[in-house]
Amino acid sequence: MGALPLLRAHVSRPVTTSPRDFETTSLPESLTVLNPATEEVVAEIPTVSPEQVAVAVERAAKAQQAWAALAPGDRARLLRRFADGVDARIDELADLEVTEAGHTLGNARWEAGNARDLLEYAAGGVERLIGRQIPVAGGLDVTFHEPLGVVGVIAPWNFPMPIAAWGFAPALAAGNAVLLKPAETTPLTALLLQDIALAAGLPEGLFQVLPGHGRITGQAIVDHPGVRKIVFTGSTPVGKEIMSRCASGLKRVTLELGGKSPNIVFADADLQRAAASAPMAFLDNSGQDCCARTRILVQREVYDDFLALVAPAIEAVRVGDPRDAATEMGPLISAVQRDRVRSYLTDDVPVLARGKAPEGPGFWQAPMLLAPEDAGCRAATEEIFGPVAVVLPFDDEADALRLANATRYGLSGSLWTRDIGRAVRMARGVNAGNLSVNSHSSVRYWTPFGGFGESGLGRELGPDALAHFTETKNVFISTED
Ligand code: NAD
């Protein structure tokens, strides 16, 4: 059925590929993958039907039993080979990411490297997934981390490779099988990762990529009783729906959802540094970043000085061909996403900075900084998921905290101050899962990541990542005669 040999970088003519080992004849529809920088069709990918999902679950369950029975060192070795395979094909993976997602080449290479790093990190955890011995009278009490079985990973289009790997790498390392459903617009890197896993020697059926529509293929994975955990990254409404569907089978669920993160600049901050960071803190990945710092809150006494630094920097951001090394921002993923972003650009919200974007084919949107008078307006409260931020003034710490927490989300945020006490007070006060002080860095695979409020449920990454894919079993062994 050879899906992946047909996947090539820079394919400008339509190609047809199929998910490995599925009959293509009965597939209901296909996904048309476009290059968002050119609007050219780059691939047609058949979707996986609910019946095929059921077959995939059966195969995964069989593969999982053999996988969990392997010696930990052997499992770790195979995952390291998988990581090596990713490393050897970073250029190809990055190229596909640029082609299907419009990411800049530098970002795409980082993303493929992140998937490799995750696999290496998870492989290093296999032998460290240790239980405890708990003191009891009359016996020995020990805990085990048992794998869950089959895990469904439902990934979004904004960071297709890393976010898929945040789920599949620790899940596999903990002894589970994985069904990965990539987003409709970005299935190509996932299919190549599946090929790399097989070439590395992972058993058939252990890691299967099932492209398809969320409401058909995704839902079939969520609803299947043989799938014991769903790791979902995407929008908050879909996350809520998935959680309620998981409830009937008491399925484990991790949700990584949206964000509307603050970037809080105090008057005592290094303004040059804060201003240098602010544009890409919301424009990276064309603003299609759940951690994007899209609410810039600036202490009133430095508001004008700060904007005098930031506005020209936003206007100077180089938007264009994602393959050009000088490009800082590429296109949006789709026409739908571009139209959604534009719906927030209404005449009643003043524009403080307006960048440039190419004309013509491609889903382009210029960077924008808005200064709404009403902090409760749509642009200031809803996740736009595009290259648009708002700026709002504040008076003091209490006011900054009130504005920062005036959101139903709580994923990330940055604080800029030279006052260590203030940094700690603010970091403790902001309701968000990932905060950075004098930086806009959010994600390191070895530190925990996840959201407060409607930004999600549970945590990914970090030292506990593997344990999240296990059930703790307690065993008491009597020592009485
Ligand atoms: P989306 O919710 O539409 O889709 C995400 C994935 O879920 C896709 O694979 C889609 O096919 C699938 N899906 C959709 N409906 C489904 C259903 N009923 N059952 C099962 N699967 C279903 O989101 P999107 O448009 O792909 O991504 C954008 C959103 O994701 C933004 O809101 C963004 O903030 C959020 N996001 C969050 C994080 C995070 O880590 N917190 C990371 C990336 C994206």
Automatic annotation (TrEMBL):
Superkingdom of origin organism: Bacteria
Keyword Oxidoreductase: yes
Record's keyword annotation contains Oxidoreductase: yes
GO molecular function: oxidoreductase activity, acting on the aldehyde or oxo group of donors, NAD or NADP as acceptor
Signal peptide, first to last residue: none
Coiled coil: none
Pfam families in UniProt: Aldedh
SUPFAM superfamilies named in the record: ALDH-like
InterPro entries: Ald_DH/histidinol_DH, Ald_DH_C, Ald_DH_CS_CYS, Ald_DH_CS_GLU, Ald_DH_N, Aldehyde_DH_dom
PROSITE patterns associated with the record: ALDEHYDE_DEHYDR_CYS (PS00070), ALDEHYDE_DEHYDR_GLU (PS00687)
Domain Aldehyde dehydrogenase intervals: 29-475
Alphabetically ordered keywords of this record: Oxidoreductase
Catalytic site: E256
Record-stated family: Belongs to the aldehyde dehydrogenase family.
UniProt protein name: Aldehyde dehydrogenase
